[in-house]
Amino acid sequence: MSSSTLIKWSGLAAIVAGAGTLLLSAASPSAPDSGSPVVWGFLLTGLMTQFGLIGIYAVQIRESSWQGLIGFVLALSGNAFFILPETSIGGVNTGQVGGGIYALGLLLLAVGTWRARKFPRWIPALWLLAIVVGLPAFFAQGLQAVAFLLGGVLFGAGFIAAGYWLWSGKSAIN
Predict the structure, then answer these.
(1) At 23, phi and psi to the nearest 5?
(2) Per residue in 151-174, is it b (16+ CB within 10 Å) or e — as a string?
(3) Residues 42/82, Cβ–Cβ less than 8 Å
(4) CA-closest candidate to residue 17, choices 92, 132, 127
(5) pLDDT tens track of the chain, all 174 residues?
(6) Buried b (16+ CB within 10 A) or exposed e, 1-33
(7) What are the boundaries of each domain within the chain?
(8) Of the candidates 39, 79, 100, 112, which lies 20 to 30 Å from 130 by C-alpha distance?
(9) Is the distance from CB of 8 to CB of 169 less than 8 angstroms?
């Protein structure tokens, strides 16, 4: 299988991940019960996000500089925290740690993506807006549901768009 075919399929994974994020953000602003279908939705969305991130980074590996590389590694690592149920390790909430790592990774990946110019600039701008809008979820309990919803919608839309760009071959590897 060629690298362009793999990139194309990672674009489909990004579209599924973005759509899953949109749906789950709207359907589940609070933590779902273990075993519920929503948990399976988070699992599928998290896995598809991993594959989508791989394709997004692969098409811009040369042009995205150190910001793109560090952002990709952090986003991939931070997203891995969300694939499994939230827990506490040594008194530290894994969801908050993963969220922080993921947000920093997405921030740097967006900077690298902006720099690489392989995607329209509004795509990384949506990711940056998702971070800014989602930040209150960490600090203000009363804003958590709204921040989760709006951040999820912005991220999901940006990921669907990036996935479409990969699937359609518009961001071909040089």
Answers:
(1) -65, -45
(2) bbbbbbbbbbbbbbbbbeeebeee
(3) yes
(4) 127
(5) 788 889 999 999 999 999 999 998 887 655 556 667 777 888 899 999 999 999 999 999 999 999 999 999 999 999 988 776 677 778 877 777 888 899 999 999 999 999 999 999 999 999 999 999 988 776 777 777 788 889 999 999 999 999 999 999 876 554
(6) eeeeeebbebbbbbbbbbbbbbebbeebeeebe
(7) 3-168
(8) 39
(9) yes
Q: How many CB atoms lie within 10 A of CB 146?
A: 14
SS3 81: helix
Instruction: Return d(Cα 115, Cα 70) in angstroms, integer.
Output: 14
* Helices 37-58 + 65-83 axis angle, to 10: 160
Both tokens of 24, joined, read 């789950």
In whole angstroms, give the CA distance from residue 45 to residue 64: 25
